[in-house]
Structures are given as structure tokens and as C-alpha cells.
Amino acid sequence: MIVLQTNFGDITVELYHEKAPKTAANFEQYVRDGFYDGTLFHRVIPGFMVQGGGFDTDFNQKPTRDPIENEADNGLKNTTGTLAMARTQDPHSATAQFFINIADNDFLNHSGKSVQGWGYCVFGEVVDGMDVVEKIKAVPTTRRGMHADVPAEDVVIQKAYVKDEPEA
Q1: Measured between alpha carbons, how far is 59 from 18 in angstroms, rounded to an integer?
Q2: Are 100 and 43 in contact (CB under 8 A)?
Q3: C-alpha–C-alpha distance, residues 11 and 50, integer Å
Q4: Domain for residue 168, yes or no?
Q5: Angstrom distance (rounded) from CA 36 to CA 27
Q6: Is residue 22 one of the residues assigned to a domain?
């Protein structure tokens, strides 16, 4: 289990190591490295998703490790409460940014091994704290530079850690 401590409350997620081993290991390593500490949920779209894991509180993009292979062909679906990797148009470009689905987003599911069909890899789900996600999705949004759908009030992941292990 992973806990995302935010300024809106805690979100606990379970990772699907069996169905998305590379993706779950990638996310967990970013957590263990402290990468997500002090990052923003920088994109909130009601009826769609909340996205985070890429920008610090000054809205500087954080450097990441190399992209990982897209495991979206694992049978998992982008349903409400699931975690998936954000990426560019390149299906195999995911690094650290992730999103929590706040609706059933079937159009994000894997439908074929083409650029359009790869989908977005689900690798976990919220097991506690959907009430916190509900609070986050209710935050008014604005533009910030080139970015749209940015919360007008910072939504910060203050600390992310592996649950049931001693905190550093």
C-alpha cells in the first residue's frame, strides 16, 4: 500500500504488482525515492480525472527516470478510483506522472497495439481516501502559463510513502 499525504487529507492506494509489474515497481520506486514529496496535483478535470506527480509547488517540472513500457494490455480498466500512468501521445512515454480516474473512462482503455489503441495503464486503485479525491476534484481551476485545468488552490502531495514500513 502507498499513502499519499496531501493538504486535503490522505489517499491510500493499492498497487497491482501482478497485472502491471513494471508500472507498479516504477511508481513504488518514485515513492521510495521521495520524488512525489512536495509535488502538485496540477490538473483537475471534473467528470474525468485528477493528475499529479510531475511539478513542484513552484510549478517547475521535475526531472524523471527513463520512460517505461506501457502495460495497458493487462486487462485492467480505467474505472472510478483506479490509478493510471499519464503519458504523451507516445504510448511508451510514461515516467512519473499519474492520474486517479474520477469517472469510468472506457476511452482510455487498451484496445489494440497501435498508437491510438494502446490506452493508459491502470496499475492500482484507491482503497481509502476517495473522499479526499472528491474534495480535490471540487477545487476551482484556472490556467497557469501553458497549462489549463490547474487548481486555483495548490493541492500538494506533502509526502508519499510505503505503508507499514517505518517512515524516514
Answers
A1: 34
A2: no
A3: 13
A4: no
A5: 10
A6: yes
